[in-house]
Sequence to fold (358 residues):
Amino acid sequence: MTQYITYILSPIVALVWVLIATPAIRAIAVKLHLTDQPNARKVHSQPIPLVGGILIFAATLLSLLIQVAWVSDWNTMYVLFNGSLLLLITGVIDDKIDVRATYKLAIQIALAWFVYASGIHIESLYGLFGIYAIPTYVQGLLTMLIIVGVVNAFNLTDGIDGLAGGLALIGLIAYSLLAFHLGKHDLLVLFLALSGALVGFLRFNFSKANKIFMGDAGSLFLGYIMVVSGIALLQTAENTANNSVTVATVIGVLALPVIDSLRVYRGRIKAGYSPFRADRTHFHHLVLSLGVKHHIATAFIVLAALCILGFTVIFGSLFSLTLTLIVLLLLFSIISSILNLNMSVNTWRNKIRKLEEF
Fold:
């Protein structure tokens, strides 16, 4: 009975802290100029405080400290906390002075190695292309590649109101169900606390009068939590009856950000640009080109992410992981191509309209 009370208190404590602390933290951020400044690529006309990541981290930590007795896997929690704190600090500095991409990448690679060295790593390909067990050195390289890739992919979703927070929230709910069935109560408390903090953040992120942004500080550490805790869940489920559904769920949670980032990188390289060059070709930009408002685009993409999650869990239980991923990639490619075509038509229509004005 006590553990269920903990499950209820965990998100409530985090949510209440965010609701109470945000006005004060928001005012401090404005004075310190920790804000997102408007420019030609952004739709807001006033500086917006970049404190969402700080608030989410602090609220989650407070909730966990109150319920620290439930922690049993100290190694995993140590890795999650220290890595999140490092990326939070990196993100805050980046939000303030724009850290060079190479420096951020070096920090992420070092952190990925730290995770692998701590014992949290990919141990199998789970039947992808018929491969299960993989050599130790491949485990290390693959773990580091996936961690760095997902952290950056998740960071790139933070382009419109509520998107990064919404994707993280549905992912955490899915992870919570896995953690409950796998008996990982400490991870479950963490996921619930983060969920409560995200709900509080989204309340202000969608506000007009008291809006805040997550910033790199939030998107980086949330991406880290999602990928590292996902790997930890995979390790826990290995050789259990929950293995296949755990693999499918983790893939479903991370699929949309990762597939979209790979599509964008491929497009930039194909056009002769750096893969890290800023543009407006992400999935949320394609959806916005339909002429919908930000909150509608966010709702559409979050719904798409839910569909992807449901598809991978159901389809992955019936067929092989390889076939599931192939079908998923094909469907995403078709939808992205249609949206990209719509954006191209709109671009040419605007050019023609400008020419007609002369």
